[in-house]
Amino acid sequence: MGEEVAYFTNTETGYVPAKLGQRSSQVKPLRIIQFVVQEVIPDVLKFIVCLIPLIVNGLIGLILPFKKKSIVGQTALVTGGGNGLGRALCLRLAKEGCNVAVVDIDMVGAQRTVADVRKLGVKSEAFLADIANYEEVEKLRLAVEAALGPVDILVNNAGLLAILSITEGKPSDLERILNVNLLSHFWTIRVFIEGMKQRRNGYILGVSSILGYIPLARCIPYVATKFGLRGMMQALQTELQIDGYDGDIQATTLFPTFIATRKELMDLA
Q: Which residue ranges in the chain fall short of pLDDT 50?
């Protein structure tokens, strides 16, 4: 039996951030160039075409700027808020005047984020929860509402970055990746959206990835969840419009691209 490979970061090993400029010592230049020419460039061009409407809207916004919406005093909940992008989102929401619920399985990181958020003059609390478990999400809602009030802004950021193919890893590894990266979005939205509908006010952000547009090899489970999340959020926004919540509740998706956030991804480069 060979040594087991850790395919994604968990609570035992903790969060390992990438170092800027970090590269693997086993890079194969010709193979990478071939992959970029045959796979990456065509997919990037398709992605750019999809961006054209957004670029046009952005240019229109520069000429005819929209009134900035105030979110001062609202309560935002950020999953995976202890580290990386989630931590950055917590701090930005705090700067906009939001009270922030920081949810993570890494309580050390979550409490560190809370301490920095409070320095910005808003309320913040750390919450330990496995968001892939529906019952824990139900308990999370009660705890957040008791401490900070009803959630107005739901940011589903938590995810497991898994560098493995479809035949690699244990079945339990794959289940955990799918549950955290996709199923958890169903649970948090299902639990928090009813209050948003009652108040006719809410914003739901699903953090996907550039890999939700570009199918990168060796990351099949991760890619599958990010493609699934993109479709889920688009369908949810359409459903909200059909049900008469257009303008009251928004569901959007964020596609981060090449962020030096986790050591595993930088090692793959």
A: 1-2, 6-7, 9-10, 22, 24-25, 27, 266, 268-269
Which amino acid appears at position 173 of this protein?
Answer: D
**Cα 179 to Cα 191: distance, rounded to the nearest angstrom:** 16
Among candidate residues 139, 222, 245, 263, the one labeled active-site is 222
226 tagged catalytic: yes
How far, CA to CA in Å, does 183 sit from each of 8, 133, 146, 159, 226?
A: 17, 9, 25, 11, 11
Q: What pTM, to 2 d.p., does this model score?
A: 0.77
The count of C-alpha atoms lying within 13 angstroms of the C-alpha of 132, restricted to the half-sphere facing its C-beta, is 13
Is 68 tagged catalytic?
no
* Helices 184-199, 134-148: crossing angle, 10 deg rounding: 40
